Fold each of these.
Amino acid sequence: MDFMTLPDVRPLRLENVTVPACLLGQPGDLMRSSLTLDAGLIGTGDAPAVDMKGAMVFPAFIDMHTHLDKGHIWPRSPNPDGTFMGALTAAGADRAARWTADDVRARMQFSLQAAYAHGTGAIRTHLDAIPPQDAISFAVFADMRAEWAGRITLQAACLIGAEDFSTDGPFRQTADIVAAHGGVLGMVTYPLPDIAERIRAFLRLAASLGLSADFHVDETGDAGSNTLRLIAEAVLETGFSAPVVVGHCCSVAVMAEATALHTLDIVARAGLHVVSLPLCNLYLQDRRAGRTPRWRGITLVHEMKARGINVSFASDNTRDPFYAYGDMDMIEVMREATRIGHLDHSGSDWVQAFLSNPARACGFSAPSLTPGAPADLVICKARSWTELFARPQADRIVIRAGRQIARVLPDYADLDPLMENP
């Protein structure tokens, strides 16, 4: 068998595949099994078989924290010094000057094509939402969600800075736009003097609109920034019952140990869902000219998991001022998260942080390899974790609705017209 092409016969039984045991509800790490593709689903029973020679199989991945509206602006708006402030300034200027509906649509389409070719089945994207960008980007998002239905399930969360939040200013109209599109209410939190009250008011507004919440939190190396604790306390105080996602949470890793662990205890009690963005945080955090970084930027994922906190990993930014690289490839995210966060030697179910955990945080259908589940799969020639993470798996097979897709990545040259002077 040419690994690149499966027989075009259905039903088809994939014999001798390697599967993380946790995905089949079994104890242990990796196990050999078989899967049948039948009428777009994982089936049972006899079928023509092909020996997969130990190839690893995963359900389609979930990428729960992305920025499809920012993607691929790096060639025209690079980060001048690789810092967080450099990213904010460059991205803000590009948005003000260039983010028409056509521009956002083209770049969003490019990212979705890449994600689909790499094997992602569901994505939550943040959309910068300072008016008038909120109306522009959510309208484009609605078009993309309809166009990609059946291939990638899409959600959108608005994104504003905490200083732009109020219940009687422009954000109130933004919140209505989010609600009209079935979105998620999102905000960046940092230690403003009145940030605790802003968070409580934000949650009350989300509750009144029937929306869940998604925060960018403490994306800094400042140990004094602990809005993570304030969000957890606000959830407990207000009784907010919808899912609350907190992303980044970088500063908790540089706090005094006792302060950090006490914060995580409150996070666990509040039932927050954490998403770590190791690639972007490795790129931005602790970057100082002429100085080697002293920490990796990643949050305390092991301590969180030990407390029963739902932890996921995601792509975050792609080729924009916040992260100059990336390709919406969740196998790359899984590989680098494993290396950066030492996920190896620490449990056999971390793969769920790219599958069921983000599904639970966002309300997506849980990926599964059990009979009756959609036959949406990613198959890699690797037979073990070390083989999987040693190479990019560029020859992977992606199955959608039981059929192998043509894995065509978009050409960067397609974006060249967008990079010309406006």
Amino acid sequence: MHLPDFQDVLQARRRIRPYLAKTPLHSYPALNTLIGTEIYVKHENYQPVGAFKVRGGINLISQLSAEERERGVIAASTGNHGQSVAYAARQFGVKAIIVVPEKANPGKVAAMRGMEAEVIFYGATFDEARLHCEELAREHGYRYIHSGDEPLLIAGVATATLELLEDEPGIEVIIVPIGGGSGAAGACIAANTLNPAIRVIGVQSEASPAAYESWRQQRLETASNRTIAEGLATGTAFELPQKIMWGRLKEFVLVSDEEILQAMVHMIERAHTLAEAAGASTLAAAYRMRDELAGKKVAIICSGGNTSLEHLKRALSL
């Protein structure tokens, strides 16, 4: 697989600009007080599908060949990758099939169907859904869009970090959530090119640490996958994002699901922002690391806002 570079990110920005508006970067005094430093939120929850992955979807599907468009595309997802593929496929008139776990977030499923994608339920976990998706792709000849091992996806999502650093060039630390790792890999490419001194820090739930263990040991690992955060819920590491992160990700932290739920509440109370669990995980990491971050200018990626009512009720009951 081609390892995407900064030129790929610049090309991705040109491709997605006609379809996606730049998302805001805001600092909130109440969050600054909570963390004890200057902190900025990159609002990818403001994307038309409520999550950052749509950047990669537009970049990839815009580059499909005529033959691939005719065959149609298929993807496995816990929600946001599927919404990204569905949104981009509709923009370019391509048939999309999304395979989701049986207990996938109902709101995300409804959104995918609303964007004219066919949704297939299979398995209890993302990894079971992914294996079935790959089988369907082989059987029917669909263009399979992996949620991490796609250079065009990574280059596309990297444009969020490019925007962030154009708005605030003095950012010293960027914290990004990691499920499969496409967002973190993209952040590393953009940040390390523009300013190699920036610390890119990944965060994952300790209940689903496959990406963390793979990064730590620098080999692909599997691990238990029990987190409530759909965007962090991968039990198997992805090769391409890991190859990028092994050389460029400065630090990787694990937080508990309880810390993530509390961070969802902090985002509502202090930033007037609805963040899904994965989107709030970066604030959870910043709060845990607040002593270490004191005096730094920090950006956190709010990767999405597609929380379920079940998760929101659970967070508010803490």
Amino acid sequence: MQEKLYFYYTNDLHSNFDNWPQVASFLKNGREKREAENQACWLVDIGDHVDRVHPIAEAFMGKANVQLMNDVGYDFATIGNNEGITMAHEDLHHLYDDADFQVVCTNLYSLTNETPEWLHSTVHTQTDSGIKIGIIGLTAPFNNFYELLDWHISAPVQELEKHVAHLKETADVIILMSHLGLTEDQEIARRFYDIDVIIGGHTHHLLRSGEIINNTIITAAGKHCAHAGEVVLTWDHNRKQIIDKEADVYDMTPLAKDLATEQILNDLMIKADDMLGKPIIELKRPINVKWFQHTEIMEKLTDTLKEWTQADAALLNAGLLLDQIPAGEVTFKDVHRICPHPINPCVVELNGDELTEIVRSSLTKDLTELKLKGFGFRGEIIGKMIFSGIDVETSQHDDGTEYVKTIYYHGKPLDTEQSFKVATADTFTFGRLLPEVAKSEVKDYFVPEFLRDLLAYTLRHKMSNH
């Protein structure tokens, strides 16, 4: 006798609720269909469901996302870095208190004396016919952030070596919920033959029909739930083993919306607007925001960053502010809309040569006109770099391009051998946007504050006469 096992999954929603009513419809209908056929079925999320870029996630600090997952009927979830490192310890500690699903994150450890009641290292479930399924979850080890928030993420391979052998003894099927990224998933599949399925996320990869490595099928459904996925396993009861593995993803955009979910989202948005409606300042005139020019608000925000981090200098890109700030009452909702990024302040140590190279790079069209997606940035374009604590004298080549003539620190030309503490957005500590920042051996991250918290402070304390 053969039996099919169905897993419907989502990953990397990032609180992008545009497709959520369609996703809810897909998941609910999938479950109803399988239950009507007496087929085993589970709903799974792979993390980064919460992203404070959205007012609902910001106002409810992720708990509304959990409510939405409860309403759909999820069975299991793991956490992504957006759940893990964008909120204070207590907020994550209680994020899933009301979850109707089990949260599995094998490599998340609290550095306080209290482990959240919702946190499981592994879980087991089984079908009515007795097929035992073991589930493990892993998240990406951003310990530079996690440990500042009193959490620790252990090495994924270390956890798999600890748990997979035991799961093999206690389960017929092993499922890994992985918020590690495709490269890591592929390496795990090569090393751990006993894992049957890896449902992945984090790197926003879309595997339309899965990828087979050794005994493992790997799948993922992109980002923002424009797609959702299905894994189908065929179990042979006579042979007591899986004889077939399939994975598909489905486009959510053309599907009918779940009207109850749409109504819940509307209600949550009204409540979020009210919760974020606390006034910060009353402006007599609007504040201009320009991505390729110096503006008063960006200069004062960069000054605030330097002062708040007690750095020698600071630099921020003007593209961080997405819109003008209108005259009249300015609320936290306005600040969130204008600066939605989950980006923290960071201080790096640089010598004068490295700081000079950063200033030079910041003037290039390649950087200022870069359309960036990722690294926490939720805007359109990097924009002009604004400095505090240093004065940059520039001139123009015959072709009109700007270049650095002299950089002054405390009125004197910059000492190339001197060491400086430079504050900036943590965005630049990743990738190769500003290599000198990324490769700095000293990086001090400031959490859980976002740059928008500094923007609110700047408006309240430095723009009161505006």
Amino acid sequence: MLWLLLTYYSSCVIQIDNVCYMAFSRTLLWYDSEEGTWRSLMRLKELPKLPKHPSHVRLVDYGGKIAVLWEKKVRASGSKKKMIWCAEIALERRNAHKIYGKIEWCGIVLTVPKSCSLLELIAVKI
């Protein structure tokens, strides 16, 4: 079952320090391998709601942090644009069954034509 879920959501699943993280149903989850269950990343109430569909969200390992990028349509009548949002989230494991997220930055990084989509991401250090 886990493999099927990860295959469907492969574009929004990453692994950092032997922990899988996934964007699912407008939130971020991590996989507790000891319990065999997905758990919510704690303390992310300020994170804007992510899109429901996984094709509009991408995760990338950003130096041990999670960089989340997602698409949001511009809410103006007749608009043919969409906004690309980004959030940088630091991770802190406090015990075996709790991982906390801290939003270090969040905002719009780009406005693009509505026909554009997020495909693949790669974090590059320059």
